[in-house]
Amino acid sequence: MKKLLVILSLSLVLVGCGNKTTNVSNSSDVLIKVGNQSITVGQVYSQMMATDSTAIIKQMASRIIFDKEVPMDDALKAEADTQLQEFIDSVGENLDVYLQYYGYKDKDDYYNNGIIPSLQQEKLVRNYLTENFDAVAAGYRPKKIRLIEITDATLAAEALAEIKAGVDFSVVAEKYSTSTYPGDEELVNNTSSIPSVVVEFIDYLTTPTLSEVLTDGTTNYIVQVTNADTNKLKDEIIESFTFDSTFTDKTLESYFVKYNFTIYDKSVYDLFIQTYPNYITK
User: Fold this and answer.
1) 225 pairs with which residues across the strands?
2) pLDDT reported for residue 61
3) CB atoms near residue 89 (< 10 Å)
4) For residue 204, which of 140, 149, 251 has the smallest C-alpha distance?
5) Distance (Å, rounded) from C-alpha 127 to C-alpha 102?
6) Of 172, 147, 161, 149, which is closest to residue 220 (Cα–Cα)?
7) How far, in Å, CA of 42 to CA of 237, rounded?
8) SS (H, E, C) 7-42
């Protein structure tokens, strides 16, 4: 399901393009260039007029990069074939409804413009994370933790005492937790959506550690770092980060710069750089 959501989100910029058409006198002029491949004004103008031009440009340039860095091979085709069949099986007789809703004219369109680029993007992000793992790990300091939230300070102190006495963290969490943090082990990093007081405590820890009761003035937390060795967690970190939009953006930024992404139209450039300032070499 996660992969399906990635595929669909990648394709949403195609939805609602409308049917307006305009004759462009300079349709053969180069609008952007990625490496030695160009995209002309005529290729994007009709879509730009009816939707977000920056998203369309980013998508079209990304497809060039995907084809360069993750070209179609037998393994990719086999994976794409499997995903298409799984999708067809999952939606059953509603296939056409789903395809139309997400902006695809038929299953071949979905295969070529949804599944394939999504898989290419996924593999490109994995490659980026693998090649830059040490820097990513040093910057985001991922680790595995267990976390519980206990509103009452007295109960929080009792819970901590039980953990220190040897009661399993999960058992204590089930007994005392008063929020959405049930004490399950999870992989987090210093940008994760967990309380800032917890991030501040765990950020630079490099060994398994149990906190005291942490408070943000409103409620209380107990956190246990269970694994802070990024080398041991490498495969899990890469798997998790591959589907994180933060690292998708970082990957694309890197490859856009690598291929000297260029926009020749000033008005489009001004719009694009507001949304994607790191995609263009200054």
Assistant:
1) 145, 209
2) 95
3) 9
4) 140
5) 28
6) 149
7) 42
8) HHHHHHHHCCCCCCCCCCCCCCCEEEEECCEEEEHH
Contacts of 148 (CB under 8 A, 6+ apart): 159, 169, 172, 173, 176, 177, 179, 181, 182, 183, 221, 222
Distances (CA, A) of 250 to 78, 118, 121, 176: 28, 16, 12, 39
Position 139 scores a pLDDT of 97
Nearest to 55 by CA among 281, 271, 278: 271
Long-range contacts of 167-175 (CB under 8 A, 24+ apart): 169/224, 170/146, 172/148, 173/146, 173/148
> Tokens 């006495």 map to which residue?
165
> pLDDT tens digit string along 149-160?
999 999 999 999
> Cα–chain-centroid distance for residue 53?
21
Report which of 154, 157, 186, 155 is spatially closest to residue 170, judged by C-alpha positions. Answer: 186
What is the number of other CB atoms lying within 10 angstroms of the CB of residue 36?
9
Query: What is the bridge-based pairing of β-strands 37-40 and 143-150?
Result: unpaired
Q: How far apart are CA 189 and CA 91, in angstroms?
A: 35
In the structure, what pLDDT confidence band is assigned to residue 46 with cuts at 50, 70 and 90?
Answer: low
Radius of gyration of the chain (CA): 24
**Sign of the C-alpha dihedral computed for residues 130, 132, 134 and 139 taken in this order:** negative
- The string of pLDDT tens digits covering residues 226-251 is 999 999 999 999 999 999 999 999 99
Of all residues in the chain, the percent with pLDDT exceeding 70 is 87
Quote the mean pLDDT of the chain: 88
Contact 224, 146 (CB under 8 A): yes
Question: Once rounded to an integer, what is the mean pLDDT over residues 205-223?
Answer: 97
